[in-house]
Amino acid sequence: MSAKKIAIMVDEMYHVLEVWYPYYRLKEAGFDVNLVAAEAQKEYHSKEGYPCTSNIAAGRASAADYDCMVVPGGFAPDFMRRSAEVIKFANDMVNAGKVIAAICHGGWLLCSTPAYKGKKATCFMAIIDDIKNAGAEYIDAECVVDGNLITSRMPDDLPAFCTAIIKALKK
Questions:
Q1: Tens-place pLDDT, residues 5-64
Q2: What does the pLDDT read at residue 135?
Q3: 51-53 vs 43-45, strand pairing mode
Q4: How far apart, in whole angstroms, are the C-alpha atoms of residue 159 and residue 22?
């Protein structure tokens, strides 16, 4: 049986811990992890300037090929929402019922999908109104799991966030 495949979304100004902690933790757990962005093989930079190179363009990524989408925070989700292909991929993942995980400001991208409708979720305090307006019931907790939706508030929540992702994918 092949390893389950995870798409970690990236763009400019990503939060370095929220990309690299899940990336290595999920690889360590035996999953196949790709960095997905608006453009393939492009170097994107964290808020601190740390680079990462995307593996695949969202326009070429298929929800059928992935089991999970992880959306890190930083300012990257604001850039992600500017790409029609990224929004389409995110919607395809949500509509296919895949595991959807967002931390911190990552929830901004999910506001462009039906992911929050009727779900409980958490996020960084600055986007609480956004996720509520997208249909979520906000819960202030380090990690909220509601069906296939996994959300966390901030980098301090990364251990609980990654544990929940791994648990969901091992079902």
A1: 999 999 999 999 999 999 999 999 999 999 999 999 999 999 999 999 999 999 999 999
A2: 98
A3: antiparallel
A4: 9
CATH number of 5-169: 3.40.50.880
What's residue 70's pLDDT?
98
Give the residues across from 138 on adjacent strands: 121
Is residue 16 within 8 A of residue 47, CB to CB? The reply is yes
What are phi and psi for residue 114, nearest 5 degrees? -85, 15
CA triple 100-103-107, angle to 5 deg: 70
Contact present, 89 and 113 (Cβ < 8 Å):
no
Annotated domain spans of the chain: 5-169
- B/e letters for 145-154, b = 16+ CB within 10 Å, e = fewer, are bbebbbbbbb
CA–CA separation, 84 and 120 (whole Å): 26
> Which has the closest alpha carbon to 127: 58, 69, 81, 67?
81
**Residue positions annotated with a catalytic role:** 105
Query: Per-residue pLDDT tens for 96-124?
Result: 999 999 999 999 999 999 999 999 999 99
